[in-house]
Design brief:
The complex is a heterodimer.
Chain A lengths: L1 H4 L2 H8 L4 H22 L7 H26 L7 H16 L6 H24 L5 H19 L9 H8 L1 E2 L2 E2 H19 L1 H11 L1 H6 L5 H26 L6 H5 L1 H11 L11 H20 L4 H28 L5 H11 L1
Chain B lengths: L10 H13 L1 H19 L6 H26 L7 H16 L6 H24 L5 H20 L9 H8 L1 E5 L3 E4 H18 L1 H11 L1 H6 L4 H27 L9 H11 L11 H20 L7 H26 L30 H5 L1
Antiparallel strand pairs in B: 1-2
Classes of the chains: A mainly alpha, B mainly alpha.
Chain lengths: ~350, ~375
Amino acid sequence: MSTALAPAAPATRRRRRLDSTAIVWIAFVAVLAIGAVLVATTGRSIFSDGSIRDILTGMSVLGFVAIGQTLVILAGSLDLSVPYVVSLSSLLAASTMNGQVGNIVPGVLLALAVAAVIGLANGLVVTGLKVNGFIATLGIGLIVKGYLDTAYRGATGSVPAEFRLFGVAGVGPVPISTIIMLAVAVLAFFFLTRTRTGHHIYAVGGGADVARLSGIRTSRPIIVAHVLCSMSAAIAGLLLASRLGVGNPTVGTQGGYDLLSIAAVVLGGTLLAGGRGSIWGTIGGVAIFAVLDSVMSTMQVNPFLKDVVRGVVIVVAVAIYTGRVVQQRRARFPGKPETAAKKEAGR
Amino acid sequence: MSAPALPQRSLGSRLADLGLALVSPRGAVFLLLIILLITITVLNPSFAEPGQFMRFLQRVAPIAVVAIGQYFVIVSGEFDLSMGSVITAQVVIAGNLIGQDDSKIVPVTLFMVAFGIVIGLINGLVTTLLKVPSFITTLGMMLALLGGVMFWTGGAATGNPADAFREIGRGGFRDVPLLDFIPYSVIILAVVLVGALLLMRRPFGRTLIAVGDNPVAARYAGVRVWWVKTRAFVISSLAATLCGILLVGYAGVHPSVGRGYEFIAITAVVLGGVALGGGRGWVVAAAAGAVALEALFMVLNFMDVPSTLRDAVQGAIIILAVAYSAFSFRGRRRAAPAPASPGSASSASGKEPDFDPNPAVPAPPRSPAEL
């Protein structure tokens, strides 16, 4: 083990200047290049319209969930309730719309409002009751799941054709849903970097005690992050409803959006402990997943092997560049941690 | 980290201590457990018969073993999300490799143990040496292992292993006087629990808690953090292996056996008052958390709660239990007139110092033990 680690040490030092987001996108380009070669061996091109549309479509649902998850993780919490919020919002929207064009707006608003309430509950339990985010959102998620299982049996409602455009329409090879997802990402980016609450999210995630001593009300950013996370998960649910045409109580859990979105966020260079990371890194992580999935589908990889590849890629990718970020964060006292890290690498 | 025993106390103050301990976060799970068991007995008096109770414990044993394994990882400040997949993998391995051949039981069991150790080593070394957050390491392991097992079996259920092997999980000593029926799995659980308790009292256990509490301080104190944590991961994988062996007994072989056990285990551990993030908690309370969780399911069963609502009730109770322990921890911390730095007051025995005129005693007793 130690011999394997030794050559990695100088490499990390050289890369220290690079922003973690940049590394994510370099990794994305690498994955894309390898994927292009692999796909080319089957006689197809990864840059064909169909393939690009496939990748971008694959990005949009996970993208919405991961954007919200980024906010929550940056604030130092975690959201495991997203799959149930996704399912619930798809059901609420589809059953409210019930095929009526006039009901599109109320359906969307209802889904978003209910999601906001769930997010508020998450945030209040985390901040008010001081329950760890992992447990709080797991519990709230279970409560929502109980409601879903009790109130709905199978697919419900229907979505009017106009709303289905959200899922299928596109500009050239670029689906509308991906454009909206990127627009939400831009909004989230400005929220995080240009607003006071955004800065507070970073501060609270980086160190709640320090943030409080600096005069920040620590609960508000966490609550806001949870509300926004649930709402973006609800958008993902709306998108799924528009694609499927109906609402489905298991659509969120089948997608495994809780763990996959967390994996995408961490793949994007965001620290799981909070306080460090960016939206664009997350989008990069989501893009890596989408390219991987698309390539494996084209190569007709066994669906079970896909999971193996996904699991290995998550760990390897994070091992390559996240270890660096963790060390960077420890370097509060320049000099000392360097030796500590070296000592550990030497073992 | 039980509170240092003070010599010569009157019976009254000990009883008061017991009462306080039961409402304290570490004891709350036992209070919850007692309440749940009494509720079950009221709803269904035959539950109190020893045979029935033993069968209840038999059903709890696999979950409790997993919770004990998860405890070691959580108290060291990490997560193990791969436990469910390890259980599934081991169940499928047992079904496929043992088959109906009794002579293969021992070699395959040894292979399963070795497999568990390897999984734990990979989880631990990737987490500690490659510095991948354990959430991600074990998530990747969970996906890869489950995918691998499903790929190997083609996603279909396979045959059950030999009956002699299944007896471990579902058999027991019958017609025992007084107790009627002692399942093997309850004996195994007892052995595992005592073993875990002894392990936590040895230098390894003390070091593990120190590492979970503050890895940097532990490293400066000379602890080989990576090796301590890696051993915790190996223990949790071995616990998952054992759980798989027990589950084969009465659940049979199916690719969905073990699914979701990692979250149940984490829930049980947290219900037992063990702090996520590490450094605080008692292994017996973690096991009691598993029993309480199973008892809770049983109460819901008896009360005719629609099965679909069980999740909701479970979710609400987890939140309330953890919120309760968070509140009492804070209350206690506030009650202790924090001497100098509020940060250090969070140590488990934080109430002692102010009564002690001798300033040399307070916090240190932990650290020398690690060296």
